[in-house]
Amino acid sequence: MKRIAFFLFTIVFSVFALAESNDFKFVYHGLNFYIPEAPKSAGFLGTENDTIVIKYGDNPGENLIGFSAENEMKTGGCEPEDFFKETLGEIKAGCDELAVGTFRRVFVDDRDTGVWSGEKYDFYYFIGDKKTTIFFASGEPSTKILKVDSNFLTKNLMKRVFKEYLH
Amino acid sequence: MNHEEREYVAAVVNYFWKGLAKPHTVNENVAKVIYEALSEVQSCTASIDLVPRPTYTASISYIVKEVAKIGKRIMSGDTSVYNMCRDRVAINYRTFMEEALLGL
Questions:
Q1: In sequence order, what E strands does A13-51 have?
Q2: Model pTM?
Q3: Please, which residues bridge with residue A133 across strands?
Q4: How far does CA A60 lie from the centroid of its chain?
Q5: A-B contacts at Cβ under 8 angstroms
Q6: Torsions phi, psi of A54, nearest 5?
Q7: Nearest by Cα to A130 from B103, B40, B16
Q8: Which residues have CB under 8 Å from A89's CB, separation 6+?
């Protein structure tokens, strides 16, 4: 209940923080994100992944953005940053082969992939025809993986979500 | 969808995301999302487990070695590939499943 109240507070507070652009400022896990204005609905099931779904379409499954914390994600014995870099073929960090292979199969194959680098965070993007997924490592004192995904945002609009951290 | 079908669909959802679905939260969109997720797990498992990985023309000794490794895993009942694929697909579909369960 406390979590839901916090979520609602965040949404309401964020509406007032909107003024300077057409984006909707959305605060999640203490970070600021900028999503298209005027969502039609938003939901939070209260699960341990803190998944928040924001919806812009009228029909089931249509035009969604989701934010979640991937607490249980297996990174093959590597730090998240090294794991993502290895899946993109940027480095050879020695992560578990099965962990890398399955990740590539689901998120890399047939997707436009890369990194948007900022001063504080690197955002690893995996852009597909039907789904786009962004992973990044965040959090102090311990590292956690956050994920943003959508089934309608274009690459440019998705990058805009992270504009505060990309200059 | 009758009650029994809802229970079974919820069981599959909970196989991916423990405790996420209750029979009364299951709807047609939930069934659609879980069907897509299951298909992706099958495809992931097949590609990782059964197909030799190198993009260059593999030598026969490499192929024999890879197939033998796969056979060894199958014979020992090792389901690690399936489980890892399921975990990856669960991450890929979680947002869409939660949206469906919320009835949004």
A1: 23-28, 31-36, 41-44
A2: 0.84
A3: A126, A149
A4: 21
A5: 85
A6: -120, 130
A7: B40
A8: none
pLDDT in tens, A63-83: 999 999 998 899 999 999 999
CA B45 from chain centre, in angstroms, equals 8
Residue type, A20: E
CA angle A32, A10, A120 (to 5 degrees): 20
Which of B84, B94, B101 faces A98 most closely, judged by CB atoms?
B84
Q: Predicted ipTM?
A: 0.86
What is the reported pLDDT for A138?
87
Query: How far is it, in rounded angstroms, from Cα A126 to Cα A133?
Result: 5
Q: How far apart (Å, rounded) are the C-alpha atoms in residues A77 and A89? A: 17
Residues of A in contact with B91 (CB under 8 A): 70, 73, 106, 147
Q: Which two tokens stand for residue A154?
A: 């274009």
Contact flag A74-B84 (C-beta cutoff 8 Å)? yes
Contact yes or no for B88 and A147 at CB 8 A: no
**For residue A9, what are the contacts with CB-CB under 8 A and spacing of at least 6?**
none
Q: A64 vs B95: CB contact, 8 Å cut-off?
A: yes
Q: For residue A63, with 0-12 CB atoms within 10 Å meaning exposed, 13-18 middle and 19 or more buried, which class applies? A: middle
pLDDT per residue as tens digits for the range B4-26:
889 999 999 999 999 999 999 99
